[in-house]
Write a structure and sequence with these properties.
alpha/beta; seven-stranded parallel β-sheet; two-stranded antiparallel sheet; globular; 13% strand
Length: 316
């Protein structure tokens, strides 16, 4: 007898067969469909994990978005905005400070100590003595800012152990320090400003992390492992940023989780020999890439992990 259930199975069969392999339990007459495995090959959503290949493809395709960020970047949104940047005294932080200042933003520089280059920018506010490892300093951060709410917070301060870390050269104190600075540090700063009511509806929090925090990509980018502290810290930073994005979503605050791209800074000097091959750029270009994605960030894209080189997602 041709039952209703038989008809339903025939109707759904094409869909069910797409999920191969299919095991049928003859004793219970039910279809067991194994879970599907997501692939990260969707080029329309995810960026390429192979850095040299990614750069080579961009050149081959003459990808202007990748090769010349000024073709898409409009800094007009920054004019008049109060932008707080941690680690603004050097490296990519200083480049970001220069970029937002040139765009007409009001720079609130947050750092442990200042620098001549930073002071030459004449920040709206310069707050020194901010160590992102210091619970008390970060909890009192809001009281040291006098000009009112922050429109954009860029958590940039970071740390990268210079020596390559392998099994025969593990440095556990350095690992803990790196995780503390790169994952707990941004949370200390963000919470200090949130609890101090300086980040309100419509504001944005930018977390500068790294593609090094993608667990899915380690077999491609680190086929032999190494650099334990660095990669653990970035994975932890990504988790922190996602959780933060969920907690502040009801407040109307967007959180961007950004890989800034490969930038020529003191922190990446240990990889100087591959800068050209992998498309490393001057920090000034990296700053524009970050600010472009900051401008694009919305409540619809909050909590996503993006590559500032091409604007595509990076898998966790």
């Amino acid at each position: 007898m041709f039952s209703f259930h038989s008809a339903l199975f025939l109707l759904l069969a094409p869909t069910l067969l797409a999920f191969t392999p299919i095991a049928v339990s003859r004793t219970k007459q039910r279809i067991i469909i194994p879970p599907t495995t997501l692939t990260m090959s969707d080029s329309s959503r995810y960026t390429n994990p192979n850095q040299p290949e990614r750069f080579a493809t961009a050149k081959k395709e003459n990808n202007e978005r990748y090769l010349d960020i000024t073709t898409v970047y409009d800094p007009l949104f920054l004019k008049g905005k109060r932008v707080a940047i941690t680690g603004a005294n050097r490296g990519i932080g200083l480049a970001l400070a220069k970029e937002v200042t040139e765009a007409g933003a009001k720079l609130i520089a947050l750092c442990r100590s200042s620098s001549d280059e930073l002071e030459a920018l004449k920040p709206e506010e310069l707050v020194t003595g901010i160590d992102v490892q210091d619970d008390e300093a970060c909890s009192k951060l809001a009281s040291k800012i006098s000009g009112g709410p922050i429109d954009i917070l860029v958590n940039n301060a970071g740390y990268f152990m210079e020596e390559v870390e392998k099994l025969d050269s593990l440095n556990f104190p350095e690992q803990i320090k790196t995780i503390d600075i790169c994952a707990c540090g941004p949370l200390r700063v963000a919470s200090g400003l949130l609890n101090g009511n300086l980040l309100k509806e419509g504001s944005k929090i930018i977390m500068i992390t790294s593609q090094g925090g993608s667990i899915s990509w380690r077999p491609v980018q680190n086929p032999k492992g190494t650099d334990y502290g660095h990669h653990m810290s970035k994975a932890a930073a990504n988790m922190m940023a996602v959780l933060l994005s969920l907690e502040v979503k009801d407040k109307g605050i967007a959180v961007g989780i950004f890989h800034p791209g490969f930038n020529k800074t003191g922190m990446t000097a240990k990889y100087k020999e591959i800068w050209d091959k992998e498309g490393a750029v001057d920090a000034s270009i990296g700053a524009k890439r970050i600010m472009h994605e900051t401008g694009q960030l919305s409540m619809e894209t909050t909590g996503k992990f993006l590559n500032c080189e091409d604007g595509l997602e990076i898998p966790w």
